[in-house]
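Project outcomes to date are best conveyed with an example. Our students and postdoctoral researchers have been running inverse folding experiments weekly, and each run begins with a structure described purely in tokens. The record below, which covers 479 residues, was selected by the lab manager from last quarter's runs and is presented without edits.
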């Protein structure tokens, strides 16, 4: 058997091989370092991910399909891989602060992150059913472990168990959908399946598509498959929530984009309606449920659900403008979410962190810089200019209008108004309320660095969105 083609293809997988090496080195440091092995393992991974950005952009793109049509390492995949690395870097910076205060540090967490990144980078390059499923499980299974890794907290274990059981159920449903599609076509390559499917009148193929989507909807916390998100986000360690709420969501949307354009293009009318309904339910469910929350992590969990709904509008109104909007919004949402959850790490309460909205009272006086940055983040989350959150929503709603989905664009705008009420509660606590007894605000250079970076990115790309939109527009899969 001639293996030269397979060996030559390894050069296109340099980022994945590199991440595997980073994970291995980190694991050995954790196991054999005599002092502070866990923290040193974290430093290894952080340095590795920062260097990994250069490795990623220096790696060649594949000229087409590689490994018998299993993968396509194109510029579209490269964009999402950069998002994953950035999410991992922000998570690790916040994790050092979190575990430094909690006095408990699970070193295995640090090398689980590169393993999850490998799964996600493979998933966004997958153009084959088998490869896509294996890659999906490769980042899903370690995610369940990550959610329940904080052994000091019972609710963390509960979060991991809930995430695992619901995740495996959704994975099984997705696998059933894949089996139906394969049974109809006898093909596993995405493009070959797209050509072989009969068309929109094939009801079995339509059922297969819906089941396939269900598994992905779960991972993206799209209603009505979002039930795990509030409990998991509340129970998991705060920095890891930044990772779990952004990187997997980006991976899922990348997979959905490939699926609708290559596997199910003949079912455009059907999946357009599906995304419209899912977007509408997700936005209203997330925002209305967030109104009654007093716990910051649960509130931001429902906010995350609502933002998944905004992204689903882009899929419902798919086209060149929607493509640009979704890719732009995913990057901005990463910074918005990292800052929103990072805020909690400035608030000390007893031996841990304050997670209630009321715990933020007086933050503006104790840390004006953090409060100013958070104001920018809250404006971006709501969708108010001159932030990148406004521009992201503007592009998505404009894409809906372009496709004649005026009612969906109006629903998105209405949901932005609803979200203003609970985001304003956070701003009111920061600027207008008195500090609560037993609460103190501790400055943290890593957390403040994340907040400042997030605010700067949201302002710069809000005022100058053209710094990113041409790149996002160029990475299209639309032929």
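After processing, the design step wrote out the following sequence:
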């Amino acid at each position: 058997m001639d293996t030269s083609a397979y060996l030559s293809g390894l050069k296109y997988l340099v980022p994945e091989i590199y991440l595997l090496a980073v994970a291995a080195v980190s694991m050995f440091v954790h196991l054999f370092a005599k002092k502070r092995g866990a923290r040193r393992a974290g430093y290894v991974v952080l340095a590795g991910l920062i260097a990994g950005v250069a490795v990623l952009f220096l790696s060649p793109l594949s000229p087409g399909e590689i490994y018998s049509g299993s993968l396509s390492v194109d510029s579209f995949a490269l964009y999402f891989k950069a998002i994953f690395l950035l999410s991992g870097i922000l998570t690790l910076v916040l994790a050092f602060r979190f575990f430094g205060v909690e006095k408990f540090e699970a070193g295995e967490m640090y090398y689980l992150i590169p393993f999850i990144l490998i799964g996600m980078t493979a998933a966004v390059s997958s153009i084959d059913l088998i490869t896509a499923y294996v890659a999906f499980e490769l980042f899903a299974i370690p995610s369940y472990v990550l959610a329940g890794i904080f052994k000091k907290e019972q609710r963390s274990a509960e979060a991991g168990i809930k995430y695992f059981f619901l995740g495996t159920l959704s994975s099984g449903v997705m696998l059933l959908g894949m089996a139906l599609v394969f049974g109809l076509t006898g093909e596993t390559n995405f493009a070959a399946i797209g050509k072989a499917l009969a068309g929109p009148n094939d009801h079995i193929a339509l059922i297969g598509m819906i089941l396939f989507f269900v598994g992905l909807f779960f991972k993206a916390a799209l209603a009505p498959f979002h039930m795990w998100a509030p409990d998991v986000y509340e129970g998991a360690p705060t920095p890891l929530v930044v990772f779990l709420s952004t990187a997997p969501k980006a991976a899922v949307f990348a997979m959905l984009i490939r699926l609708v354009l290559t596997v199910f293009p003949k079912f455009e009318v059907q999946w357009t309606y599906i995304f419209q309904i899912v977007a509408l339910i997700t936005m209203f469910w997330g925002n209305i449920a967030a109104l009654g929350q007093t716990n910051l992590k649960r509130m931001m969990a429902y906010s995350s659900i609502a933002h998944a709904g905004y992204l689903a509008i882009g899929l419902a109104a798919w086209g060149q403008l929607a493509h640009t909007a979704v890719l732009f919004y995913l990057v901005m949402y990463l910074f918005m979410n990292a800052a929103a959850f990072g805020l909690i790490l400035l608030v000390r309460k007893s031996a841990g962190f304050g997670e209630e909205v009321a715990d933020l009272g007086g933050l503006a006086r104790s840390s004006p810089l953090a409060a100013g940055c958070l104001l920018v983040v809250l404006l971006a989350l709501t969708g108010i200019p001159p932030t990148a959150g406004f521009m992201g929503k503007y592009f998505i709603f404009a894409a809906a209008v372009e496709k004649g989905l005026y009612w969906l664009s109006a629903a998105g705008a209405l949901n932005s108004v609803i979200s203003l009420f609970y985001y304003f509660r956070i701003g009111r606590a920061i600027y207008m309320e008195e500090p609560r007894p037993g609460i103190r605000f501790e400055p943290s250079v890593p957390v403040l660095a994340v907040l400042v970076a997030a605010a700067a990115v949201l302002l710069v790309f809000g005022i100058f969105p053209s710094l990113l939109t041409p790149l996002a527009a160029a990475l299209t899969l639309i032929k």
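The radius of gyration is 22 Å. The chain has a mean pLDDT of 87. The training component of this project remains on track.
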